[in-house]
Amino acid sequence: MASRNGVVFEDFFPAMVEKLGAEGFMKELCNGFRLLVDGDKGVITFESLKKNSALLGLQDMSDEEAMCMLREGDLDGDGALNEMEFCTLMFRLSPELMNSSMKLLVEAIVNF
Question: Ranges for the EF-hand domain (predicted)?
C-alpha cells in the first residue's frame, strides 16, 4: 500500500486485529506510540520519530518521509503527534481497518 508520499508498506494491521482482537490491537498501537514518543514532551516529534524509528524497523526513513508522517497525522497543528493522532493516522494508513472500523469500535465498546 502507498501513502501520499509514495512510501510503500505491507499492511499487517488487519492480521494483528484478527489475532489480538480490538482491545489487544489498540494496546499494541499505544505501545508503538510509546516507542516513538519524546519522553520529555509526551508527543511524537520529528526528532523523536527520527531517533526511535529504528525500533520499529524504519531506520531508513528519510527526513522528508518523517515530516510527511507528522504533517499527515497532526490534526491540531502543533507539529507533533499525540497518542490519539498517532492511532488515528495508523488507522487511516490501513484501508482494510478503515473499512471495518465500525466493527472494531463496537467490539471495543462492548469489552470496555
Answer: 61-96
Structure confidence by residue, pLDDT tens digits, 66-111: 999 999 999 999 999 999 999 888 878 776 666 666 666 777 778 7
pLDDT value, residue 10:
54
Domains along the chain?
19-111 (1.10.238.10)
Return all residues near 71 (Cβ < 8 A) that are at least 6 apart: none
Cell numbers placing 23: 482491545
Residues 6+ apart with CB under 8 A from 74: 80, 81, 85
Own/partner pairs, 33-41, CB within 8 angstroms, 24+ separation: 33/81, 33/83, 33/86, 33/87, 36/86, 38/80, 41/80
C-alpha 52 chain-centroid distance:
14
Q: What is the pLDDT of residues 19-43, one digit of tens each?
A: 888 788 889 888 989 999 999 999 9
Neighbours of 72 (CB within 10 A): 16
